[in-house]
């Protein structure tokens, strides 16, 4: 999709849109100059009243510049810190600026904003504190390699067991959350195992977490940096993190 | 008399040789000198140096008064003074490196928070006409207003309806 041209004139006030819920669309991006403009444009067209914040996780390419050109506001981390720190940056920002809803999607273009809008609706309606988009919840036509599917299944099993709630896509970065969830994640948020651990953390803190079936797209630009040995090690590390997570004192959400 | 002490009487206690003691004492002195020098040149914070300095003093004491090591070995129930020495040294080093991992973790967290604060401060204030958050501009009949006004009721609500 081509980048949406930035609207030239003033827009109407935020509270008039998205049913009055002040919304921040979060796009974490690390060296995504090929896709970021399209992602920002897609987000802006489906969240017309929302602010779009690209958290640039220490990119060395033109990600920040292209995001700005596409009409997003950009928070630049001075060096790469992992997707968790990028998410948390936006939660801190959103808490401080009074946003009531954060809707997030990955900067690589795998997450269509139209699907994210459904997650946002689930949170806005008060049905959930945290809504997670799942590729696997039902036939969504998403394909990935055998090793990744195996890892996904294992994570699902672990998180589902530890939370006593079924999760099918624990590594999904397409989410929507309200201030209750943001507040929890501002206090503590894993930087390496963000997606998986945050589910456990949220359920343990008593938040209502729902999984919403979504359609995702295959990667168009760039390559996944995951190698077989790397994913085996990642799975092992995540296992340890989840076990430790079970032993952590429960956080009380306000 | 208990059995272990009978055995200990049968086999003599293994002690440090005078040569080993001299070498240990010299090393301890060099070690403490190195630490003093690092502090003097601002390469080591005092806060982290005290524990190393104490370690150097302990080394020196062990070399100067071998009876301390023998007492230690006796307390641990080992006959060989060198084994007692190695075990204690290993434990102390383990504890220290764990301590440093804790410090490193805390600092990593602090660095992350600093980076996040700086990132948030780097967010440019919304410019009128660029971002959607143009607070100063009043609602007006602008060319972009007509297509954004109906949009607010359509896609956000329309999307859930058409997607499933």
Compose a concise summary of this entry.
The complex is a heterodimer of chains A (254) and B (164). Chain A has 254 residues and is an alpha/beta fold.
Write a structural description.
- The complex is a heterodimer of chains A (254) and B (164).
- With 254 residues, chain A is an alpha/beta fold.
- Chain A has a single domain (14-247), classed as Spore Coat Polysaccharide Biosynthesis Protein SpsA, Chain A.
- Chain A has helices at residues 36-46, 63-69, 83-96, 113-124, 146-163, 179-187, 194-204, 228-247; strands at residues 23-29, 51-57, 73-77, 101-104, 130-134, 175-178, 209-213.
- In chain A, strands 3-2-1-4-6-5-7 form a 7-stranded mixed β-sheet, with helices on both faces.
- In chain A, helix 1 (36-46) links the parallel strand 1 and strand 2.
- The longest helix of chain A is centred in the last third of the chain and has 20 residues, at 228-247.
- Chain A is globular, with a radius of gyration of 17 Å.
- Chain A starts with 22 loop residues before the first strand and ends in a 7-residue tail after the last helix.
- With 164 residues, chain B is mainly α.
- Chain B has one domain.
- Chain B has 7 helices and no strands.
- The N and C termini of chain B lie far apart (85 Å).
- Residues 128-164 of chain B have low confidence and may be disordered.
- The A-B interface holds A 6-14, 16-19, 44-53, 55-56, 68, 71-79, 81, 85, 88-89, 92-93, 96, 114-115, 117-118, 120-121, 191, 213, 215 and B 112, 115-120, 122-124, 126, 128-135, 137-140, 142-145, 148-149, 151-152, 155-157, 159-160, 163-164.
């Amino acid at each position: 999709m081509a980048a949406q041209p930035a609207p030239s004139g003033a827009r109407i006030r935020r509270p008039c849109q998205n049913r009055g819920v002040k919304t921040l669309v979060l796009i974490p991006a690390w060296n995504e100059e090929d896709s970021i403009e399209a992602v920002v444009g897609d987000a802006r067209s489906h969240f017309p009243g929302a602010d779009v914040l690209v958290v640039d996780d220490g990119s060395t390419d033109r990600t920040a510049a292209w995001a700005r050109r596409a009409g997003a506001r950009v928070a630049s981390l001075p060096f790469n810190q992992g997707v968790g720190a990028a998410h948390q940056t936006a939660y801190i920002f959103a808490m401080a600026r009074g946003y009531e809803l954060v809707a997030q999607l990955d900067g690589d273009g795998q997450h269509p904003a139209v699907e994210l809008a459904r997650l946002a609706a689930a949170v806005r309606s008060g049905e959930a504190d945290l809504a997670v988009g799942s590729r696997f919840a039902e036939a969504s036509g998403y394909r990935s390699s055998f090793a990744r599917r195996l890892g996904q299944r294992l994570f699902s099993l672990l998180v589902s067991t530890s939370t006593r709630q079924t999760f099918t896509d624990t590594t999904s970065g397409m989410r929507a959350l309200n201030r209750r969830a943001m507040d929890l994640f501002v206090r503590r948020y894993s930087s390496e195992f963000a997606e998986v651990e945050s589910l456990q953390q949220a359920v343990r803190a008593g938040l209502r977490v729902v999984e919403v079936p979504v359609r995702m797209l295959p990667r168009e630009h760039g390559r996944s940096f995951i190698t077989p040995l790397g994913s085996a090690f990642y799975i092992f590390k995540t296992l340890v993190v989840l076990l430790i997570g079970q032993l952590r004192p429960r956080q009380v959400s306000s | 008399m208990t059995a272990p002490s009978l055995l200990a009487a049968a086999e003599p206690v293994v002690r440090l040789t005078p040569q080993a003691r001299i070498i240990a004492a010299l090393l301890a002195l060099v070690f403490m000198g190195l630490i003093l020098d690092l502090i003097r040149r601002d390469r080591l914070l005092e806060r982290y140096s005290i524990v190393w300095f104490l370690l150097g003093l302990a080394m020196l004491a062990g070399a100067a008064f071998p009876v301390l090591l023998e007492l230690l070995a006796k307390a641990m129930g080992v006959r060989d003074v060198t084994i007692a020495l190695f075990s204690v040294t290993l434990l102390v080093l383990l504890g220290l490196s764990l301590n440093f991992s804790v410090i490193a973790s805390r600092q990593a967290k602090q660095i992350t928070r600093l980076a996040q604060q700086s990132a948030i401060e780097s967010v440019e204030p919304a410019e009128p006409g660029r971002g959607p958050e143009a607070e100063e501009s009043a609602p007006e009949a602008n060319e972009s207003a007509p297509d954004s006004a109906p949009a607010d009721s359509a896609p956000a609500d329309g999307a859930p309806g058409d997607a499933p």
